[in-house]
Amino acid sequence: MENTIIPEGLLVYLRPVIEYWYYSLIIGIFLVFAAKFVEKISIALLGFLLGINVLFPVLLNQFPQLNELLTDPAYYQISMLVFGVIVAAVLFALYKSFVFIAGFGVVGIIGYYLADFTIQFFDIQLNFNPLYITALIGVILGLIGGIISTKKSSEVISIMSIVVGSATLSAVVVGLITRNNIEEKITEPLYSSIFIGVFLALVILGSVWNFKRSKKSEVA
After folding, report:
1. Residue of 32, 50, 38 lying closest to 166 (CA atoms)
2. Largest CB tally within 10 Å, which of 7, 36, 177, 208?
3. Residue range(s) defining the domain that contains residue 180
4. What backbone torsions phi and psi does residue 80 show, to the nearest 5 degrees?
5. Is 28 exposed, middle or buried (CB count within 10 Å of its CB: 0-12, 13-18, 19+)?
6. Predicted TM-score of the model (pTM)
7. Rounded to a whole number, what is the distance in angstroms from the first to the last CA of the chain?
8. Does residue 200 lie within any of the structural domains?
């Protein structure tokens, strides 16, 4: 079996990004370089990408009969865009809630796994199921993370936007290099490495660009 950095299952979500690269390119550039300055627009664009690249493919996978109604490429694209706009509108309207849920989920999961790792590493013996304590720690830290994320929503949205935008642009770059062979090439170590390399470079560049400019504007 050939070694790969990017799992093949990820192709389900990368394919729309690459196939409709003209949308992805514009949104990706915006998310990487302007996220810090237009928070609510960034949330809407994140929702749009989430809708067309994640939720729409999942919806089609769960309800295969929908594929029969969307055999025409034009209908498929229109349906995908409409669905993306709906998700974007929902996140735009509920962006504070979205930030809290994102902060709760990320910090809670990290807290859960750190607690579980600590119990196993130090071989801590408990008289009850360790899941209770690890879940409790995860929930408590998740709540703290959610509250902090809500108060620091601008920074949280900026970081999420930079990460998602960088991943989107990386997929576009690899897609343009591989042309029509994305399914075969993306799992090869060379192209997976290009994806990871471009992604990390854009994350660093986007972080420096957004947060350095933000500090300059605050000083001014």
Report:
1. 32
2. 36
3. 8-94+158-219
4. -65, -45
5. buried
6. 0.71
7. 56
8. yes
